[in-house]
Amino acid sequence: MTDARTLRAGLVGLGSMGRHHARVLAGLEGVDFVGVVDPMGDKFGAAQGAPVLDTVEQLIALGVDYAVVACPTGLHETVGMQLAEAGVCALIEKPVADTVEGARRLVEAFESRGLVAGVGHIERCNPALRSLRARLEAGELGDVYQVVTRRQGPFPHRIADVGVVKDLATHDIDLTGWVTGREYVSIAAHTVSKSGRAHEDMVSAVGRLDDGTMVNHLVNWLSPLKERFTSVTGERGCFIADTLTADLTFHSNAAMATEWEALQAFRGVSEGDMIRYAIPKREPLLVEHELFRDAVLGKPADICTLRQGTRTVEIAAAVLESALDGSTILLDRDSATTTV
């Protein structure tokens, strides 16, 4: 589809994320929000006037061009397959599925039918990370040495079906590959479960990208401090992105000569100037919806594809495998193998 007609869009799920999707869909230019599926009804009055339906089949019967899938992760594959079989494009919340096999089946279902499908890795639309990515692509940092992320905060009671790796760490896995333009080649991790749930609620992971860049992820649901921190260190300094505030700063390596004897012998880098960038701060979810709408219309749009979302699920599975048996997982583009 390459015309500029108004698209008909639906939504599956009115949970905490689905309510935000409903708000954005209701005001999205070039889109009619025609219906939402939630068997629990609209408990929070979030449907924005759209009819609330019981089944995905009822939504499909309304003649939608695409649907946003924001139901629990364990239902993504079932709902996604229903949409694909009906010829409906889909924006599926992250992670794309709760298993690697399920994610791969979704890729096949949508690609084989030539349907546009994407994954809602919202950090790709964060203003700070979009600016950081552009600056890395322009070579402003020189060689990249390390990416460090910290994503921590209190336990979100909305989550019941997955642990912190699939719910939160998938953000950091995806944004690291997207920002740097590189692939993971290895990952090793430790997890703990302290909240009495069946799933892990803290993970620490160390990885390596295909250009040698070192990666560190610290993610948990056990901290009273809410933090969303990404740093990229390289040849010319360090970028720091705070995705809670959408701020990006750059700390440069010092170029000033020193006469202090203790520092003259120093062979590393030293603290230089700090720049805080002025960035237009549009809502990431609105940007995500605009990009997906444009993709459905056949316009160039940088969305997270199902294949990219599946790669993130594969790496998350490797994180859990590593934590289970203490191994380092070596990854290639097609499969994951384990080595001690």
TrEMBL record:
All residue ranges annotated as the GFO/IDH/MocA-like oxidoreductase domain in the record: 130-239
Molecular-function annotations in GO: nucleotide binding
InterPro entries, per the entry: Gfo/Idh/MocA-like_OxRdtase_N, Gfo/Idh/MocA_Oxidoreductases, GFO_IDH_MocA-like_dom, NAD(P)-bd_dom_sf
Gene3D superfamilies: Dihydrodipicolinate Reductase, domain 2 (3.30.360.10), NAD(P)-binding Rossmann-like Domain (3.40.50.720)
Gfo/Idh/MocA-like oxidoreductase N-terminal domain boundaries: 8-121
Name of the protein described by the UniProt record: Gfo/Idh/MocA family oxidoreductase
